[in-house]
Design brief:
- The chain is an alpha+beta fold and about 375 residues long.
- It contains 11 helices and 14 strands.
- It has 2 domains: about 210 residues, no CATH class; about 100 residues, no CATH class.
- About 35% of the residues lie in helices and about 25% in strands.
- Strands 1, 2, 3, 8, 9, 10, 11, 12, 13 and 14 form a 10-stranded mixed sheet that branches.
- Helix 2 crosses helix 3 and helix 4 runs antiparallel to helix 5.
Length: about 375
């Protein structure tokens, strides 16, 4: 059986920031190798990648994740046939035919409120169009929407993001889609301690007053940390091909994922910290055996880094660990590419062909096309 995986590794330095906070507002963290590390959850970075797709791919290739799926289908019915006056009712029937349960939101006091699903549903633009088309056809014929047709409409024409990140449909499990991309929680390669920023805000109309209350209009604290993160993700190429059903779409999906993985960043507190950075180094490996997360390089946390700094120490650790994995278990590498900046990441140049981001996207796309037998 053919296997193809695209593994993506990155080292990324982030200045004082709070990219991804917990329920108390603190930056998320995790204990790894016995030390507390900064952490950015996989969910946060997957959301950032999906958002970045909007700048890379055409909207017709993407999906929408929402509880307001009835309104979404109803809007599409209206676009396809402006003469339909009861679009919401027929949208509800179309979704009911797929097995999805919807109900009027409990928070709404409006009895005529458009029903919503009880959880987020992820449908592609093509699936929304197909369901709307079925509803219009059934309405015109004065009949019911065939359940098999509705299931087929909701389970074909998967968008790139649905195929990559999957979906869970609790009411109709046969509509669930297995994810073909996995994104790890990013963790710092070194121990981290959170700090607090004490801030004040001045009332503009009180500034300069001699009144006793002419001080700060408000005070507060924001928790933050800074870190060098190790990030990892992988794409199951043949699984992606099976979900999309199209060679060209598969190659485009991988290309988009690589670019979005590199350029995206969660937006937590970004206006406060202006913390947006690009990775110091990215290693992308096309493999024929299995995905391999190289986080073991940092099980023993980088401490200080000496005169060379943490990034240089992390780069040397990553090269050594990758070589040890290859020595111990053999190589399943088909191709490997490195995008890096600065002298600190120079050791990583050993791990693959040194390229720019645009070249990386093209080279990985070509390698994937060759693996699945598609024209590059």
């Amino acid at each position: 059986m053919n296997h193809t995986y695209v593994d993506l590794h990155a080292l990324q330095t982030v200045p004082p920031s709070n990219l991804n906070r917990d329920d108390t507002g603190s930056p998320k963290s995790a204990v790894f190798g016995g030390t507390r590390r900064a952490r950015v959850s996989s969910q946060a970075w997957k959301r950032a990648i999906r958002t970045a797709f909007g700048e890379i791919l055409d909207p017709s290739q993407l999906g929408v994740r929402t509880k307001r799926v009835v309104a979404l289908v109803a809007d599409e019915i209206g676009r396809q046939d402006p003469q339909v006056t009861d679009a919401a009712a027929w949208a509800e029937k179309a979704l009911a035919a797929t097995g999805v349960k919807v109900e009027r939101p409990q928070r709404s006091k409006n009895a005529a409120a458009v029903p919503e699903s009880g959880y987020l549903l992820f449908f592609s633009a093509g699936q929304i169009r197909n369901l709307a088309r079925l509803a219009i056809k059934a309405r015109a014929a004065g009949g019911e929407i065939d359940k098999r047709d509705a299931k087929a409409a909701a389970d074909s024409a998967h968008s790139i993001d649905v195929a990559l990140f999957g979906r869970m449909v609790a009411d109709a499990t046969d509509l669930s889609v297995d994810a073909t991309a996995q994104v790890a929680h990013a963790i710092s390669v070194h121990p981290v301690e959170n700090e607090f920023d004490y801030y004040t805000a001045v009332d503009d109309l009180k500034a300069g007053d001699d009144d006793a209350d002419a001080g700060a209009g408000m005070i507060g604290t924001i928790e933050f940390n800074s870190s060098t993160l190790y990030r990892y993700a992988t794409v199951n190429v043949h699984g992606l091909r099976g979900s999309l059903g199209n060679d060209a779409a598969t190659v485009e999906a991988v290309r988009a994922f690589v670019r979005a993985f590199v350029t995206s960043m969660p937006t937590g507190k970004q206006n406060t910290f202006a913390n947006r950075t690009l990775p110091d180094a990215v290693i992308v490996t096309v493999r024929s055996d299995q995905p391999i997360n190289l986080v073991g390089a940092f099980e023993d946390a980088v401490r200080g880094g000496g005169s060379q700094g943490r990034l240089a120490a992390a780069s040397e650790r990553l090269v050594k660990h990758a070589r040890e994995i290859e020595r111990a278990y053999g190589g399943g590498q088909v191709a490997s590419f490195v995008v890096r900046v600065g002298d600190a990441t120079k050791p990583l140049g050993e791990l693959g062909e040194n390229v720019s981001l645009d070249e990386l996207v093209d080279r990985v796309g070509s390698a994937v096309a060759e693996r699945i037998g598609a024209p590059s």
